[in-house]
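[[Per-residue structure]]
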Amino acid sequence: MNKTVGSTLLVSGTMIGAGMLAMPLTSAGIGFSFTLVLLLALWALLTFTALLFVELYQTAESDAGIGTLAEQYFGKFGRIVATAVLIIFLYALIAAYVSGGGSLLNDFLPESFGNKMSILLFTIIFGSFIVIGTHSVDKINRLLFL
């Protein structure tokens, strides 16, 4: 039960951060109508994808990951492609978070500090939580979510 609460708060915090805070800022230039159409199209695509994963995981082992499923259905090449896509996606995601977090931190530091140093400081601070362990990340996320 306790892990479920932590996982729920982690997903909820990510959705609130990306959907409620960043989305209006990034879509302001293209207008409300086009943004609404894009949101509905993406919602349909993501719902379809989620239903496909539900279908796949009904017959898979409980500890099977995306790479395992890709290998089961597409062979070794499918596993390599799925793993490469996940690595590229996660690299892009962490680059965006580090860049954005460093930029936010730079606003609170003196101007002489510099953007690159702010990014480095952000990475050291939040990277240390990961090095300490996922338990610390869960506790910090719960604190920040409240």
Remarks:
- Residues 19 and 78 are 31 Å apart (CA to CA).
- The mean pLDDT is 87.
- Residues 64-146 form one domain.
